[in-house]
Amino acid sequence: MRRWPAAVYVALFALTAAFRFLALKNGFVNDHFVYISGGRQMLFGEWPTRDFIDPGLPLMFAASALAQKIFGQTLFAEAMLISVAFGLAAAFTAAAVRSLTGSMTLVIAAALIEIAVFPRTYSYPKILAYAIEFWLYGRYLARPGIGRALAMAAGVAMAFMFRHDHGLFLWGGGVLTTMLDREATTWKASLRAAAGFSAFVMLLLLPYLLYVQVNGGLWLYIQNGIQFSEREAGRQWHVWPRVFGDERPLESALVYELHLLPLVAIAVLLARRAREDFRAAAASLLPLAAVAVAVNVSFIRDPLNTRLADAIVPAVMLGAWLVSRAFESSSRRALTIPIACVFTLLLGASVLAVGFTHEEINRAGLLGRRQQIPGRFVERTADLQSRFTDYQMPTPAARRLVPFFRYVDRCTAPTDRILVGGFLPEIPFYAQRLFAGGQGYFGAYFGSEANERFAFDHLRQQRVPFAIVPSDGETEFNKRFPLVAGYVRARYAPLADVPIDDEQTIHILVNREMPAASRDPETGWPCSPHTSRSS
């Protein structure tokens, strides 16, 4: 019997990883290329904060860099990263639910709901970090000790390095876990345990904080993080949609379901306060509920179809606990079981609607003949390893710029850079060149005077043959980065305009101060004396 849970976890990992890999038929959205390009930058010896601006996501870049180091600098590397990450998340969620409820039925149901909601590829830390830390909470409560407190602290530090608010939310949950542990018999003991856990977190993060202080300072780093968060909040606001009469009622319903789950769980817990196991139940449940509230407030924004899935891990944990309580032997089972079943069905229907689960299963090629599935892996691997697979490219702009990318191959050196003056983070990846000025793109974020000076100083020391400025980002580039925009106007000349659609044209500018050794025979454009002859 002991091998049964392990077999389930392995099966869930394999199922999820395979599904996420096969569903990458259309590749990655362009937002994800922020991390892919940043990871590539690290392979050339450049580090977040020191060499390029980081809004507080260093492990996102490092994870992508590691994947590219292992699997090569193609989309296949990122596909392996996110497939393994989502697979591990499903396994850890299952293990955490088993620790919380003891039910293998709920283990499988919770994991399947998490898989079905189909979070965006770049959201894998929002699933993996929370699943691991919730499992570590349960492990600590099962047998408190210094080693397990240190493991919880390591989970928080990892989450913090993926994105700082993840670390803050999970640190809060960890503090509650240590304080509510049944072995902490007095408030002083509880506070000592929480202080020890917090000290472990700070010790683990101290080297990174010192690194930031040495490379630009913590104050500027904090300002960048705040600016990034404010711009995100201004672009994606909280919504309370109508359920009845809405175009997507199940999606709208999920907003309220996610917000209700921690409140209902706390209410059920308080109704059980006279029971002998109340302290243990509170220690298991309240940290999850607190994290769920923080996650819901932070993550659930417009557009809902891309953000709701991010809050799924605390939701399935709380939902599993509530269902397990509903099926307990008591005089109220005739009422609690139907309520639990109805809510589970409603949550499941909402998840299927938000995740477009049927469409994703179809995209993965899992609705056809079973004997064709192995061939899907071969096909997907080939597509992801190919540089210019048309339907893998994230934007029309990337597709239309393929001739430019091939020209860059022929007429520039691998260490040359490209300045991107708008939100086209995929350009450095497809051009296989470094981004310039310490910014993957010059867009809505990081337009402060200090950041612009940082970019300007880096630009003057770098070989940057080209600047790419999309017409729909030109005004913002000039407004938010006047020093850099002036530098570009003074040193770059128009090379070509590439029309994308009625609303966007890509302006390709060439550095007129760089001597041309020859002319490209295909385009007639200048070739650098340090030309790479790769194709």
The helix content is 55-70%
Strand content: 5-15%
Series of H and E elements: HHHHHHHHHHHHHHHHHHHEHEHEHHEEEE
The coarse silhouette is: globular
Class inferred from helices and paired strands? mainly alpha
Q: Name the average pLDDT.
A: 92
Total helix count?
23
Biggest sheet details? 5 strands, mixed
Pick out the low-confidence regions.
none
When the domains are counted, the total is: 2
Strand order of the largest sheet: 2-1-3-5-4
Oligomer: single chain
Q: Over the alpha carbons, how many angstroms does the gyration radius reach?
A: 25 Å
E-strand count: 7
Distance between the termini: 56 Å
SSE diagram, text form:
Blueprint: H1 3-22, H2 33-43, H3 58-71, H4 75-101, H5 104-116, H6 124-142, H7 146-162, H8 164-180, H9 187-214, H10 218-235, H11 249-271, H12 278-299, H13 304-307, H14 312-326, H15 333-355, H16 357-363, H17 373-385, H18 396-400, H19 402-411, E1 417-420, H20 427-431, E2 434-435, H21 449-459, E3 466-470, H22 474-480, H23 482-491, E4 492-499, E5 505-511, E6 518-519, E7 526-527
Parallel strand pairs: 1-2, 1-3
Antiparallel strand pairs: 3-5, 4-5, 6-7
Helix pairs in contact: 1-4, 1-5, 2-3, 3-4, 4-5, 4-6, 4-14, 4-17, 5-14, 6-7, 6-8, 6-12, 7-8, 7-9, 8-9, 8-12, 11-12, 11-14, 11-15, 12-14, 14-15, 21-23, 22-23
Q: How would you sum up this structure, described in words?
A:
The protein has 535 residues and is mostly helical. Helices cover 63% and strands 6% of the residues. The strands form two sheets. It has a five-stranded mixed β-sheet. α4 (75-101) runs parallel beside α6 (124-142), α11 runs antiparallel to α12 (278-299) and α22 crosses α23.
